[in-house]
Amino acid sequence: MAVWIQAQQLQGDALHQMQSLYGQHFPIEVRHYLSQWIEGQLWDAVDLENPQEEFKAKRLLDGLIQELQNKAEHQVGEDGFLLKIKLGHYANQLKSTYDRCPLELVRCIKHILYTEQRLVREATNSASPLGAMMDSMSQKYQQINQAFEELRMFTQDTENDLRKLQHNQEYFIIQYQESLRIQAQLSSLASLPPADRQLREPALLSKRATVEAWLTREANTLQKYRLDLAEKHQKTLQLLRKQQTLILDDELIQWKRRQQLAGNGGPPEGGLDILQSWCEKLAETIWQNRQQIRRAEHLRQQLPIPGPIEDLLNELNSTITDIISALVTSTFIIEKQPPQVLKTQTKFAATVRLLVGGKLNVHMNPPQVKATIISEQQAKALLKNENTRNESSGEILNNNCVMEYHQTTGTLSAHFRNMSLKRIKRSDRRGAESVTEEKFTILFESQFSIGGNELVFQVKTLSLPVVVIVHGSQDNNATATVLWDNAFAEPGRVPFLVPDKVLWPQLCEAINIKYKAEVQSNRGLSEENLVFLAQKAFSSSSNNPEDYRSMTMTWSQFNRESLPGRNFTFWQWFDGVMELTKKHLKPHWNDGAILGFVNKQQAQDMLMSKPNGTFLLRFSDSEIGGITIAWRMVWNLMPYTTKDFTIRSLADRISDLNHLLFLYPDRPKDEVFSKYYTPPLSKAVDGYVKPQIKQVVPELCFAFKWPLSSNNKKQPEPKCNLYIIKYHIILQIIVDVK
Predict the structure, then answer these.
(1) Residue 423 contacts by C-beta under 8 Å, 6 or more apart in sequence?
(2) What number is the average pLDDT over the span 438-460?
(3) What is the SS3 string spanning 643-699?
(4) Omega before residue 416 within 30° of 0, cis
(5) GO molecular function terms here (predicted)?
(6) Which residues does 649 contact at the CB level (< 8 Å), separation at least 6?
(7) Which of 289, 403, 590, 620 could make an S-S bridge to 626, C-beta 3.0–4.6 Å?
(8) Per residue in 372-408, pLDDT tens?
(9) What stretch of H or E contains 232?
(10) Greater pLDDT, 52 or 737
């Protein structure tokens, strides 16, 4: 539910607080009439502390003004006329207020949205169970942004303390120089006559004692300032670690998991703009604190005072370096994965991105990225930091690419557009493992420095598992390996371990996602369809879905062992159904015309009570990628495959068979399929008659006489009457004789 809709339902003090957010700086009418547009913009993607982000803010300001003007232009009538004037006035007012400082508009709207969300959340939590239904993502984003605000305040506080420390230390050094000057004056008294020395010495001794007492006190004060500053930095770094863990180990890992599931056809993983904005804020805050710690170390070296501060600063410097190293190495990611079924000698692409590249000015000396294919064992050794001696498991052409900085989006990325796997080196296989079960990965690596070569980073990232094939016939088995890995991989696993068996409902979810993606349909697998698949997978006759809830399916059952009495596996059969539906049956599946997942006996039972001519469409049990027509008179035709549908479509074949009258349960066939029939052939041109292919069932065809014309005269025999017998079906080429 939109925040504004809920905000309008606030009452009492909460309503008053909400109303107080608005005024001349941002009228409440603008919030009301543009609520959907305002809540749809990525305000959090703008870094308010970065002046370079002003162009993003300016774009948002221009968009807001344009929306207001559009809204104003569409107002009609007497009331509309007044509103048109008011909205136009607000557009000019906002442009005048924020045109020179668009970041302030973003700050204002972010504050309004955060406050509204908080007020709505508090109200719903206290009033009804609706609070549990609030958008958890919005709450998490608010938590992250609040932590950034705390970090900003902490960093500003330590910056002020550091300046104060520097000022006090500079004054201390001046006073220390004064004490040295007094000491020099006292030393020079030795050359004076005793009378002069006695006259001047007491004053100098008194002055020296005063200065030295002040220096002793001030040295203790400076030491306390240094320790207090170090403790504040420790607190900041603790919050930084917590924030970085939340973003890298939670949000970024979730994005990567969504990316992996998208490889199976799941929802898109979403953009990286918000994640990048968070990572850039982390980088900026870390770098500011690192510079502060280095300045504090410089002050200590400039004026050494005995105490624990040296060890504390060393520890802080080590911690901040670890934090920035973790950030940089974790944000070198693969934005666009290479294909997970990778055929040799075939061009493929991938994109890698450094989320903090722009903020850390890495693009000032653009790094080069190298892509290498490595085996599962090499990937394991790499993650254990074992020396792999730069080994690879194949040769990739065009595997080097320079990272490019895109000013408009602030992204630093490398686009590999024309890679090709020239050859692959396979490892020894284990047991029954086939080549299509062997997993590889593309290793992307680079090196760059930041802060004027202060820190040098070697970054690496691994692609999702890749199965290498050399022929298209291996594609379906390779896809099975990828599907299983994407669906059941655990975050942080050892490459590329997956469970050998999973619960049947887990597998159902995975193949349903895959089916909908491949067929490009919102109509997924129903519970009845999944029961049919369970019966096939487990050789069971139970129709109760509950009987399969706790059953498990092994990888061998999925795609290593053939189904009973067949020469293909469960996955190979299911993949054949997907391919056939995707290429030839998609509109009929979407229309609900294909029951599909029904066995022979079920089809007979369903049709038994129906009138003759009632038929249904079911996927073949005996042939990969086949579909058959079952009806009362014949029960089952031999299956159609892709080869058949390249000759004549399913709809036309159904149209050809006049004995098919009703699609189960009782829908007239023309009502369902007529929109897909091929239009009638045109009349002869230049004396030539176009032949027409039609389908007949021989047993039925030969039982009937040649049809009569409308005047009950027998029509002339066709000049060409060629029967092609295939699967008990005859394709009849008919030439109309006029």
Answers:
(1) 344, 394, 395
(2) 90
(3) HHHCCCCHHHHHHHCCCCCEECCCEEHHHHHHHHCCCCCCCCECCECCCEEEEECHH
(4) no
(5) DNA binding; DNA-binding transcription factor activity
(6) 584, 676, 678
(7) 620
(8) 999 999 999 888 876 656 678 899 999 999 999 888 7
(9) helix 194-246
(10) 52
> For the segment 136-151, what is each residue's pLDDT rounded down to a tens digit?
666 777 788 889 989 9
pLDDT tens across 635-656, in order? Answer: 667 899 999 999 999 999 999 8
Name the nearest CA neighbour of 509 among 685, 314, 706, 261.
261
Residues 115 and 111: their CA atoms lie apart, in Å, by 6
CA gap 662, 615 in Å, rounded: 6
pLDDT at 531: 95
pTM: 0.73
Rounded-to-integer distance, Cα 87 and Cα 72, Å:
6
Tell me: pLDDT of 304 over 70: yes
> Both tokens of residue 610?
């129906």
Rg (CA), the chain: 38
The helix (H) or strand (E) run that includes residue 58 is helix 54-73
What type of residue sits at position 27? Answer: P
| H helical segments located in 99-193 | 102-127, 136-188
User: Residue 141: helix, strand or coil by DSSP?
Assistant: helix
- First CA to last CA across the chain, in angstroms? 66
Instruction: Indicate the DSSP class of residue 303.
Output: S
Phi, psi angle pair for 445, to nearest 5° = -140, 150
* Cα–Cα distance, 108 to 210 (Å, whole number): 54
Helix (H) or strand (E) holding 394: strand 394-397
Q: Which two tokens stand for residue 286?
A: 């870390």
pLDDT, residue 737, reads 40
Tokens 């709207």, residue located: 109
